[in-house]
Amino acid sequence: MSISTGSSDGTTLTRLLQQNVTVLTALDPSGYFARQYMQTINTFLVTNVLPGMFDFNGDASSFDVMMEYLTAFVNNNLNSEDAAIANAAKDIQGILSDKQANLILEDSLAALRSIAASYPETLALPYVATHFLDWLKVKYPRLSGVGEVFGSVLIGGLAALGIFNLFFWRSRTGKI
Questions:
Q1: Mean pLDDT, all residues of the chain
Q2: Count of H helices and E strands in the chain?
Q3: Which residue has the higher pLDDT, 160 or 152?
Q4: What total number of domains does the chain contain?
Q5: Please, what is the Cα angle at 163 between 77 and 143, to 5 degrees?
Q6: Cα R_g (the chain), whole angstroms
Q7: Taking CA 157 as the corner, what is the angle to CA 90 and CA 116, rounded to the nearest 5 degrees?
Q8: Residue 168 pLDDT exceeds 50
Q9: Which of 32, 93, 147, 154 is the most buried (most CB within 10 A)?
Q10: How far is residue 5's CA from residue 21's CA, in Å, rounded to a whole number?
Q11: pLDDT confidence band for 167 (50 / 70 / 90)
C-alpha cells in the first residue's frame, strides 16, 4: 500500500513509520538510527502538527478549559520548592487576577490561533512562540515582563490539550 493511494485506512502512516523503524533496526541492530528517526518524527509532530491544533473556536468551553488549566497551574505551583516555578505561578496569578484577565486570555487564544495558521511549515512552534511574545508585548505592554512565562504555560497547555483531544478522538473513533 502506498501513501499516495488516498486510502482512508487511518493506520497507513503508522504502518509506514513502523516499517521504516524495522528497516533501520535491521540495518543497525544498536537501534541508534531508529531512535534518531523517531526523535525526528516526534520533533516534527510537536513543532508542526501541534501548533495547527490550536484551533479554539472561541466557544465558552474552550475558553473555560484554558482558564481552569491556568488556575490549576497557579494553585499547584504557588508553593513550589523550585523558586522559578513558584515565581512563574505568581506571575500567572497576577494575570488571572487582573480585571481584564478574560480579555487577555481570549485575545491570546485568538492570536495563537492566527499565528499558528500563518506558519504551516516544518518546525513552526518556535515561530509561533516568538510571534506570540512579540504580539503580547505590543497588545499588552504591561505584561511584557511576564510574557515568556505566560506564553510558555499557555502554549504548553494548548499542546497538552491538543494531545488530549487527539487521544480522545482516537478513543471515540478508533482513528487518528
A1: 75
A2: 8, 0
A3: 152
A4: 2
A5: 45
A6: 19
A7: 120
A8: yes
A9: 154
A10: 22
A11: low
First to last CA, the chain: 18
The larger pLDDT score, comparing residue 60 to residue 94, is at 94
Last residue of a domain, one of 19, 34, 52: 52
Structure confidence at residue 27 as a pLDDT band (50, 70, 90):
very high
Q: How many residues does the chain have?
A: 176
Q: Which residue reads 511584557 in cell numbers?
A: 144
Cell of 145: 515582563
Q: Are residues 110 and 33 in the same domain?
A: no
Examine the domain organization and report whether 128 and 66 are in the same domain: yes
Whether this prediction's pTM lies above 0.85 is answered by no
| 5, burial (CB in 10 Å: exposed 0-12, middle 13-18, buried 19+) | exposed
CA distance 131 to 135: 6
Residue 4 lies in a domain: no
DSSP 20: H
Catalogue the long-range contacts made by 158-161 (C-beta closer than 8 Å, 24 or more residues apart): 158/50, 158/53, 158/54, 158/66, 158/112, 159/46, 159/50, 159/53, 160/69, 161/65, 161/66, 161/69
**Cα(62)–Cα(33) distance, integer angstroms:** 40
Are 71 and 96 in contact, with CB atoms under 8 Å apart?
yes
